[in-house]
Design goal:
Layout (H helix, E strand, L loop, with lengths): L3 E3 L3 H6 L1 H13 L6 H10 L1 H11 L4 E3 L5 E2 L8 E2 L4 E2 L1 H6 L7 E7 L4 E5 H17 L7 E5 L4 H12 L3 E5 L5 H11 L3 E5 L1 E4 L2 E4 L4 H7 L5 E5 L13 E3 H6 L12 E2 L3 E6 L9 E5 H15 L7 E4 L6 H7 L7 E6 L9 H9 L3 E5 H10 L3 H4 L7 E5 L5 H11 L4 E4 L1 E3 L4 E5 L6 E2 L5 E2 L5 E4 L10 E6 L9 E2 L6 H7 L7 E9 L5 E6 L13 H8 L5 E11 L2 E10 L7 H14 L8 E4 L13 H8 L23 H8 L1
């Protein structure tokens, strides 16, 4: 087993929500579970009872719950959860705390801050909900936002959800084509935009994008502009109304009329990255999203009322939706807009101390970046409020675990988590009463029947294979938008293993019950018939001080796969033969000779999706002469140019 880096104290175990939940389980069902493993096993064997108990434990607000919890539980897809329930997502987020408590704290890279109490949040949601209702917005209508991570974005989403309408968003760094590719598919009636944003000290004006957007999206009936960069903004067309003007005609003391919705009615539309074609429009339900997020926030993250929850995210990533749901657990959301490394590398740690953040969420890439920058927050910041660090977006390497406990804080629950927009939640994540083991995600999520399969659909233990989920869960998508016969939905998740969710991650279930993720299945390398996860190579390359970032792909030559490694080096460093040898030796000695790349090439940029994930498939397509179908889905599509016609790769083909 991997070494234990952290153990929860007896006090933390005693006060954890999950401990209280285990007590409720014993009281209600007479089931005495002594540890997480037993609780997990009971939850996957008794899913209806588990989710019924979560509903009560989380104190879900609803017009009615209904007697039935799960119908057609043997169908995947096809299971139906709480078929008679009537509830509203926004009501559950707005009715959790004393209205005199803070609900949202906002900060941006320029040092501007704002705090909203629950009372103020409620008033603004009420005003906007009235305005949208006056606009004719009703259940099932779509409302979209192209916005930074602002309080107004949360307000717009909550107002939309209060009416039973469907919210969808992306961040303002998306160009017009990327935004149109997403929103034209779902035909929103109202669009929220901003005048621009800042990133890494640079100002990006977005006013010139409004007219092209409206021309390309004929479904838009009303556009609301939020003045973010400039306090005084004149409207850019007759179709556009300023935020303050849109709210002005509606009283702030009006109680919100929450529209009751079915548990399985649509709430959010999220989008796939779109790097292989038009983004898929993934539809998530009112009740499934709420119940799953409450389970994760309360039991896995251990959020208590008044805790301050932070996640570095844009509004185009599912972690924004996950963060927003923190209001349902009584958390104060800490929102941030801008570069996490500006104006200095430890800017986010200043934020922890300023707002007394308890749960701090970032990407694995961020942890690796600050590790390489040499900063040591344990020596420069207080961090006494911090009890949990969350990491996602890509696998967190074992050395990242070492860095957190050595250079950030020794007494903290480091929870690497993994799921995706597909389920708007996690398959594997953390637990406050479990130890943290080096390089491992702590556990499988409660009532998530997660397993590892080989290519023939047989379970694996202690070996690498495909991450699957064998039973239904509430946050499975309702389906894909406009996929009337469900064929696209079925093809995405259920074709590989009949009746089993295939997630596309290459993983290993450890003896301790944790999980290690080695990368995406579709980017697994196969030199000489040996399957290698890209994360196994990244882990070793990250240990080479001269390397800042890397990207690895497989080049198909004469029926075999040759591993090609691209590296971005520190300023002033050149890729010499001795450095290539150093990199290869690092990989060979700490992974295996099979992991050693055939060729190492220096590049100046690595293509990434809008959510910051390395676009390995795009580069693989480029070097094989295949088109990258939707370059607008990339944050930096220009980066692809240097991967075309690389002479060293052409030489390999000739060998």
């Amino acid at each position: 087993m991997n070494p234990v880096l952290w153990q929860p104290s007896a006090e933390r175990r005693a006060h954890a929500n999950i401990t209280r939940f285990m007590g409720l389980l014993t009281k209600e069902y007479g089931v005495d579970v002594m540890d997480y493993s037993a609780l997990y096993q009971w939850s996957v064997e008794n899913p209806a009872a588990f989710w019924d108990l979560i509903w009560d434990f989380a104190n879900i607000k609803a017009i009615q719950k209904g007697k039935a919890v799960l119908l057609d539980g043997d169908k995947m897809p096809g299971a139906r959860w709480f078929p008679d329930a009537r509830l509203n997502y926004a009501e559950n987020l707005l009715g959790r705390c004393d209205k005199r408590n803070f609900a949202i704290s906002f900060h941006n890279e320029n040092g501007e801050s704002q705090r909203l109490m629950y009372e103020d949040l409620y008033k603004q949601v009420s005003q906007l909900a009235q305005a949208l209702r006056n606009e004719g917005i009703k259940p099932g209508d779509r409302v979209a936002g192209i916005l930074p991570n602002l309080p107004e974005t949360i307000i717009a989403m909550l107002a939309t959800a209060s009416l039973g309408a469907i919210w969808s968003s992306c961040s303002p760094d998306f160009g017009v084509p990327s935004s149109v590719d997403r929103f034209r598919q779902i035909a929103p009636k109202v669009l929220f935009v901003c005048d621009g944003y800042t990133f890494n000290g640079k100002v990006f004006n977005r006013l010139d994008q409004v007219e092209p957007l409206l021309k390309a999206l004929p479904s838009i009936q009303k556009t609301v502009l939020i003045p973010y960069l400039y306090s005084e903004v004149s409207t850019v067309s007759k179709q556009v109304t300023l935020w303050q003007d849109y709210l002005a005609d509606f009283p702030e003391d009006q109680p919100i009329e929450f529209t009751p919705m079915g548990f399985n009615d649509p709430l959010f539309i999220l989008f796939s990255s779109g790097t292989t074609g038009l983004p898929k429009c993934i539809v998530h339900s009112v009740g499934g999203t709420l119940l799953q997020h409450l389970k994760e926030h309360l039991l896995h993250v251990d959020i208590h009322p008044g805790d301050r929850l932070f996640y570095y995210t844009t509004c185009g990533w599912m972690m924004w939706n996950w963060l927003a749901s923190g209001l349902a657990s009584g958390a104060e959301l800490v929102l941030y807009d801008g570069s996490p490394l500006y104006p200095k590398a430890d800017a986010l740690f200043d934020l922890i101390d300023e707002f007394q953040i308890n749960v701090f969420g970032v990407s694995a890439k961020y942890i690796d970046t600050i590790k390489k920058s040499g900063i040591s927050p344990v020596n420069t910041h207080d961090l006494s409020s911090l009890n949990t660090i969350l990491s996602t977006g890509s696998p967190l390497m074992p050395e990242g675990f070492d860095y957190v406990y050595g250079s950030i804080k020794s007494d903290v629950c480091l929870s690497s988590i993994s799921g995706g927009s597909d389920i708007i939640s996690c398959f594997v994540l953390g637990c406050p009463i479990l130890p943290v083991r080096r390089g491992e995600i702590q556990c499988r999520g409660l009532a998530m029947d997660v397993d590892v399969y080989d290519e023939n659909g047989q379970p694996l233990r202690g070996e690498k294979g495909e991450l699957v989920c064998k039973s239904p869960f509430p946050s499975m998508p309702i389906g894909f938008w406009n996929d009337l016969d469900g064929s696209l939905y079925h093809a995405a998740y259920f074709e590989k293993y009949l009746g089993v969710w295939w997630h596309g991650d290459y993983v290993e279930l450890t003896k301790s019950g944790g999980m290690i993720i080695y990368g995406r299945s579709d980017t697994v390398l196969n030199p000489g018939g040996i399957r290698i996860g890209t994360a196994e190579i990244y882990r070793q390359v990250e240990q080479v001080d001269e390397v800042l970032e890397s990207l690895v792909i497989g080049q198909d030559i004469d029926g075999d796969c040759k591993i090609i490694l691209f590296v971005i080096l520190r300023k002033g460093v050149e890729l010499t033969e001795p450095l290539k040898l150093k990199i290869k030796q690092q990989i060979k000695q700490n992974a295996s000779p099979h992991h050693v790349p055939k060729e190492i090439l220096q590049v100046t940029d690595i293509p990434r999706t809008k959510s910051g994930k390395i676009a390995e498939l795009a580069v693989r397509n480029i070097i094989h002469g295949h088109p990258v179908k939707n370059q607008d889905a990339l944050a930096n599509p220009d980066a692809l140019e240097q991967y075309k016609c690389i002479k060293e790769l052409n030489k390999l083909k000739a060998l």
